[in-house]
Amino acid sequence: MTGIYIPDTWEEEQELARSSKPHHTPEVGKLPYQRTAPKVDAKPDVGKVRSVAELRQDRSPTIWTIDQFGAQGNAVILAAELGVGKTSFMYRAAEAIAHGLPLMGQLPTVKGRVLFIQADESRRNATEKLEIMDIQAEGIEFLFPDEQGWCGLEMDRLRAQINGQRYAAVFLDSITTLLTHGSHSMKDAEFSHPLYELNALASRNNLLAVIAAHLKKPESGQRSQVTVHDITGTGTQGGAVSDIWGMWRPSQPTHEDHYVLGCLGKRNCKEGTRWHLQGNPEDFSWTLKAVGEGDLLPSKRQQLKARLLEHLRADPSPRSAKDLGQALGHNPEHVRRVCIELFLADALSRTKQPTAMGRPIWLYSLPL
């Protein structure tokens, strides 16, 4: 039986090619396809491998651009129900950073320039909203991607804009508009790849990046709780950023224009944090009215931090959060939380006191 000879090795294929005369195919007019010789690469350069000691030595303290909401060097998703006012909240957050004033009078901010990439609202609509809100901060700059010919979130252009500008924060509105210009749908895992780049960009430039997203409509018409699984689109979005916040209407409001702002995870903000806000439809301002059970108002938390540091300056002996809570006459759990926050901000040091059984006890003191 006759058939076509198929070489088994690359060398045999080359010998067959040399013994055959090249010919043109009538369809494409090209020489028959020939495999190129396989390349033997040298050992690839994997870069510098760092030890745990080096990583810890290079660690920067946690600095909150917006206290308890968003830290420097991190990207944050703000996922909200349609019509709850996430854009106006982001405008107010940008205004607070530009002026260096507490957001909602409760959350201290780090003053700096802000870039706002607005893809959900036209220039006209955004300008009207800014007029109603009476925002006059000079430190906020707007970019409308559709006017500049952007095709979604173009990271190369964003890097070029940010490079050397020393922005404190970048706000992007929103994922739906900026990330749906590619070949992937919102349900594809690849949809979230630009978010990984955004998080890396925030880290390299030591700025806060906040990008708006949307929550799915509740199946029953009302929400009893919100989790990361309620965010519209692929679940990989949550893994691409540092922190995730949700914004929604409570099923049982306790005051007029009641909205909930809650941390859904995962690295800096405390999952389960619930802030109860009141919106003002007249000027799109926001007031932080109350917090979730067992938590402190941000202003009260700041007062506790100040009292704790003052106490340790007067009596610098290392003590546990429980002992510090008793000395301050305060809830030990609240003291423990602020001790950890101050430790990550390099405002406190701590040593481990081993115990015979169970968890070790950590003793907090002022840094040497």
Distance between the termini: 89 Å
Q: Domains counted in the coordinates: how many?
A: 2
Shape summary:
globular
Query: What is the level-2 CATH architecture name of the largest domain?
Result: 3-Layer(aba) Sandwich
Report the portion of residues in β strands. Answer: 15-25%
CATH superfamily of the largest domain: P-loop containing nucleotide triphosphate hydrolases
Report the total helices: 11
Q: What is the ordering of alpha helices and beta strands?
A: HHEEEHEHEHEHHEHEEEEHHHEE
Region (Disordered): 13-32
Protein name: AAA+ ATPase domain-containing protein
Organism: Cyanobium gracile (strain ATCC 27147 / PCC 6307)
Walk me through the topology.
Layout: H1 10-19, H2 52-58, E1 64-66, E2 70-71, E3 74-80, H3 86-99, E4 113-118, H4 123-133, E5 140-143, H5 155-162, E6 167-173, H6 175-178, H7 193-205, E7 208-214, H8 237-240, E8 243-248, E9 258-266, E10 274-280, E11 285-291, H9 298-314, H10 321-328, H11 332-344, E12 349-353, E13 361-365
Parallel strand pairs: 3-7, 3-8, 4-5, 4-6, 6-7
Antiparallel strand pairs: 1-2, 8-9, 9-10, 10-11, 12-13
Helix pairs in contact: 9-11, 10-11
